[in-house]
Amino acid sequence: MSEVTVNGTFNFELVSPERKLMSGPAKMVVIPGEEGDFGVLPGHSALVASIRPGVVEITMEGSTDVQRIFIAGGFADVSPTNCTVLAEEAVNVNDLNQADLEQTIRNLNEDMGMAKDDMERARIARKLTLTRAKLQGLTGKAVA
Fold this sequence. Notes:
Blueprint: H1 3-6, E1 10-15, E2 20-33, E3 36-40, E4 47-51, E5 54-60, E6 67-71, E7 74-78, E8 82-87, E9 90-92, H2 98-114, H3 118-139
Parallel strand pairs: 1-8
Antiparallel strand pairs: 1-2, 2-3, 2-5, 4-7, 5-6, 6-9, 7-8
Helix pairs in contact: 2-3
């Protein structure tokens, strides 16, 4: 048994294309997998999973607070002693602004109505999906 699992933690890293956002011993992480949310604890079975847009919840060693980070998708690489989340985009939920997100959704809906072709509609639809997911991560409520 490794020292990492003896003290009830595992090594956790959250990495975006821009930078490493978090690194250190974690007690628990909940990840929004493509096939549903899954929790990671020390000793977890090895797996690689696709992540859908949503909120990763992290409880670091020495803290009872849960840190909430919105990610726009990516991959999780889990082993009994490590968990690495490679995120396409990542932002702390505390840094999200509900009014700004709601305005962005309104603007994107207007843009969708003026889109000239399928490619532009697909690009706008992707942005709309991500913005709705951010708003849901912030408020905890589904967004239509």
